[in-house]
Amino acid sequence: MSKNETYYEHQPVLLEESVEYLITDPGGIYIDATLGGGGHSLALLSQLNNDAQLIGLDQDDEALAAANSRIGNDPRFSTIKGNFGYLSRLLPPELHGRLSGVLLDLGVSTHQISEAERGFTFQKEGPLDMRMGNLRGITAYQVVNEYSYEDLRDVIYHYGEERLSREIAREIISRRPIETTIGLRDAVEAVVYGKHQIKSVARVFQGIRIEVNRELDMLREVLDQSLALLQTGGRIVAISYHSLEDRIVKKFFKSGNHEGKIEKDFYGNPLTPIEEISGGIIRPTEDEIKQNPAARSAKMRVAEKIELPEA
Ligand SMILES: C[S@@+](CC[C@H](N)C(=O)[O-])C[C@H]1O[C@@H](n2cnc3c(N)ncnc32)[C@H](O)[C@@H]1O
């Protein structure tokens, strides 16, 4: 199987629901900010008309190559390589304020996880890398082998949401240098016992991956910038896979900022430039989870940009 084909193994999550919520104008301009293997983009294109424009963005060269070869030559579709945290700078200025929708299907793709040499998986031996793109950024090796005890503990506690962060950080430090994913897994398994062992390993890997890719900072950035780039009535569809991401999305959709503070005018009317229209979280059906277990933790929220009354 070619590299591109392994990308197509990624089954798009909440596909019908996300496409239905995202498209408000079949001739509009849309951004798939997490293109991956192009599963969502392909479905979007099938619902858009000839006037539409869809830009797929990913920071991973392999994802871009796979999506381009899967979607082929479609005049409505183009791609940009980059981190969605810099979305406004990556998009041509003439599109600013004209977008009908931005799709965020966060996290890593099945393909990225299945490639041992990318270092995302604890199931196979690989180098401690975990970078999704930006090959100049820090790697998991640096977090594991060079962070101070306090910083490592905090990454594991805050981003991994792992209670035994102190014990695990101490164990990792006592085993330095740790060279591979299996070495990191062994360190976690030396301090966590019983049936929760594998969950703790997954949480430590998640925490380090979030740190390496600055995932939460980038999510806050892309939410801010998407809101600014949308036209009134345009939508953001965000699919997240862990509670830290969902908390950020929820707060932003409620208030339009990251403090969750609802600004009010002189008369006390809320001045919120965004409204959550999904009525909270939308989850995959039991059937979808049965067919695609990777969908089980997915949470989708949808918000619309609203026009504020004239001052
Ligand atoms: C879950 S996959 C998307 C799968 C895609 N929706 C599909 O159906 O094939 C997430 C993708 O987003 C990309 N990604 C994650 N964070 C990113 C960021 N900050 N900037 C750009 N791309 C990012 C990853 O490289 C990965 O390819």
TrEMBL record:
Keywords: Cytoplasm, Methyltransferase, rRNA processing, S-adenosyl-L-methionine, Transferase. S-adenosyl-L-methionine binds at G38, G39, H40, D58, F84, D105, Q112. GO terms for biological process: rRNA base methylation. Its main location: cytoplasm. Its EC number is 2.1.1.199. It catalyses: cytidine(1402) in 16S rRNA + S-adenosyl-L-methionine = N(4)-methylcytidine(1402) in 16S rRNA + S-adenosyl-L-homocysteine + H(+). Gene3D superfamilies: Putative methyltransferase TM0872, insert domain, Vaccinia Virus protein VP39. It is an enzyme of class 2 (transferase). The gene is rsmH. InterPro entries: RsmH, SAM-dep_MeTrfase_MraW_recog, SAM-dependent_MTases_sf. This is Ribosomal RNA small subunit methyltransferase H. It is found in: Cytoplasm. One of its GO terms (molecular function) is rRNA (cytosine-N4-)-methyltransferase activity. GO terms for cellular component: cytoplasm.
